[in-house]
UniProtKB/TrEMBL annotation:
It comes from the Bacteria. GO terms for biological process: threonine biosynthetic process. It catalyses: O-phospho-L-homoserine + H2O = L-threonine + phosphate. Its EC number is 4.2.3.1. The modification N6-(pyridoxal phosphate)lysine is found at K112. Residues 88-329 form the Tryptophan synthase beta chain-like PALP domain. This is Threonine synthase. Residues 2-80 form the Threonine synthase N-terminal domain. The lineage of its organism: Bacteria, Pseudomonadati, Pseudomonadota, Alphaproteobacteria, Rhodospirillales. InterPro entries: Ser/Thr_deHydtase_PyrdxlP-BS (IPR000634), Thr_synth_N (IPR029144), Thr_synth_N_sf (IPR037158), Thr_synthase-like (IPR004450), Threonine_Synthase (IPR051166), TrpB-like_PALP (IPR001926), TrpB-like_PALP_sf (IPR036052). CDD domains: Thr-synth_2 (cd01560). One of its GO terms (molecular function) is threonine synthase activity. Pathway: Amino-acid biosynthesis; L-threonine biosynthesis; L-threonine from L-aspartate: step 5/5. PROSITE patterns: DEHYDRATASE_SER_THR.
């Protein structure tokens, strides 16, 4: 299995190289050169298997033999043994043809654990064998950060630097990151938005000298391995409700477009998904794109679902690559224009093809609160505000009556207690292992939105010897 860059001019890499590289050298994102395929019979044969077995079958073709089967099996088993629910990502049925897929039973209570528990172990395995170290730099709007820190804390071969937008995460999210005091963990509160954090991470990758000296690696969904691990739960959920012999669709609350891109990948691999419903909060650039074909940046505004307060959705580039018939030069030109002008548009033909699969809806804060309240009243379930955006979009979706719809529950409600309490009057409690979170010591460094300041800070803290 080879991976190619969406911008067409970086070298093709194998799985191990892609895992360590993160962003491609030409600024693009890596995608598989071709999609592995599962036939309807292959899918039927996976029905009823435990999550870890489905995970091994779905991910193995992406490895291209890079990791011995027995080692990969152990890594997968250990990764999902950290989840508190035996089914790893259980489905909860809320209506005749409507489920929520609970992705928040991992150590940090958000869907990011599904991929990052695996990624931390993959990094460890590969770096130990190669006798190498890396410096991970990541951007977070709140959830990736704690999941990545949890997965990489105290690992001898890794220093990890996580940039979060100062004051723009929930307090629980911030404390989940900043109370990890391990020597290899560094939290940076950036004076800016999540888009600024993500821009700075990409700028560090696009600085060849810094990238090489620090041996940069990525934990954001720019790293292909993140997407690979997220594909699995679409297969697991689809099979559990009857695919390929039942019509299915997913509704996905969306920010950086990684989660819904993983669903798109599952479809390319043979899971017969009829529709992908994209839910955005008031930062609705994606909803506007799927309605008009124009991607146009507006300012990032704080919302009740802070992890989705994003305007530049980095994984959209992977979809754009396919929309432009995998023409890397055209993607590079389009992304260059996007950076320069804050906008680009696709033609009616491309938009029409995208709309055959994607449908997008904006769910504002008032609607988000109303969904949390309504679902609680109707079913007793408490949704977090991100999950509520997905459910709100699902309710607005235009699907045939016989399509079974699964909406993704991406975070535990206790990560966003204020929003949940305002909607329901109930304050969700953190699990006992996090009960003292508000008493724990915090450690973070506030830095300006400035590349040189960030690079100086990272160079000064990294344990890489001989780094420039
Ligand atoms: C709780 C939660 N829901 C939804 C999203 C959006 O997912 P994605 O960025 O993959 O589109 C995020 C952030 O990634 C999140 O943390
Ligand atoms: N919502 C995310 C933003 C980063 O997304 P990623 O999937 O690219 O890591 C967060 O919680 O940090």
């Amino acid at each position: 299995m080879k991976y190619v860059s969406t911008r067409g001019s970086a070298p093709s890499l194998d799985f191990e190289q892609v895992l360590l590289a993160g962003l491609a050298e030409d600024g693009g994102l890596y995608v598989p050169e071709s999609w592995p395929h599962f036939s309807a019979d292959d899918l039927r044969a996976m029905r009823g298997l435990p999550y870890v077995e489905i995970a091994k079958r779905v991910m193995t073709p992406f490895l291209g033999g890079a990791i011995p089967a027995a080692d990969f099996a152990r890594i997968v088993e250990e990764s999902y043994a950290t989840f508190e629910h035996k089914a790893v990502t259980p489905l909860k049925q809320l209506d005749q043809d409507f489920w929520v897929l609970e992705l928040f039973h991992g150590p940090t209570l958000a869907f990011k654990d599904v991929a990052l528990q695996l990624l931390g172990r993959l990094f460890d395995h590969v770096l130990t064998r190669r006798g190498e170290r890396v410096t991970i730099v990541g951007a977070t709007s709140g959830d990736t950060g704690s999941a990545a820190i949890e997965a990489c804390r105290d690992r001898a071969a890794i220093d990890i630097f996580i940039l979060h937008p100062k004051g723009r995460t929930s307090e629980v999210q911030r404390r989940q990151m900043t109370t990890v005091l391990s020597a290899n963990v560094h939290n940076i509160a950036l004076e800016g938005t999540f888009d600024d954090c993500q821009d700075q991470v990409k700028a560090m990758f696009n600085d060849p000298a810094f990238r090489a000296a620090q041996r940069l690696s990525a934990v954001n969904s720019i790293n292909w391995a993140r997407i690979m691990a997220q594909i699995v739960y679409y297969f697991a959920a689809g099979l559990a409700i009857g695919a390929p012999d039942r019509r299915i669709a997913f509704s996905v609350p969306t920010g950086n477009f990684g989660n819904v891109y993983a669903a798109y990948a599952a479809k390319q691999m043979g899971l017969p998904i009829e529709k992908l419903v994209v839910g955005s909060n008031r930062n609705d650039i994606l909803t506007r794109f799927f309605q008009s074909g124009e991607m146009k940046i507006a300012g990032v505004e704080p919302s009740l679902s802070p992890s989705m307060d994003i305007q530049v959705s980095s994984n959209f580039e992977r979809l754009l690559f396919d929309m432009l018939d995998r023409d890397g030069a055209l993607v590079a030109e389009t992304m260059k224009g996007f950076r320069a002008t804050g906008g680009f548009a696709v033609g009616d033909n491309q938009l029409g093809r995208a709309k055959a699969l994607f449908e997008a809806h904006r769910v504002d804060d008032q609607q988000t609160g109303a969904v949390i309240r309504a679902v609680h009243g109707e079913t007793g379930e408490i949704l977090d505000p991100h999950t509520a955006v997905g459910v709100g979009a699902a309710r607005a979706a235009t699907l045939d009556a016989d399509v079974a719809l699964v909406s993704l529950a991406c975070a535990h409600p206790a990560k966003f207690p204020d929003a949940v309490e305002a909607a329901t009057g109930l304050r969700p409690a953190l699990p006992p292992r996090l009960a003292d979170l508000f008493e724990r010591e915090e450690r973070l460094t506030v830095l300006p939105n400035d590349l040189a300041a960030l690079q100086n800070f990272i160079s000064g803290k990294t344990r890489l010897k001989g780094a420039a």
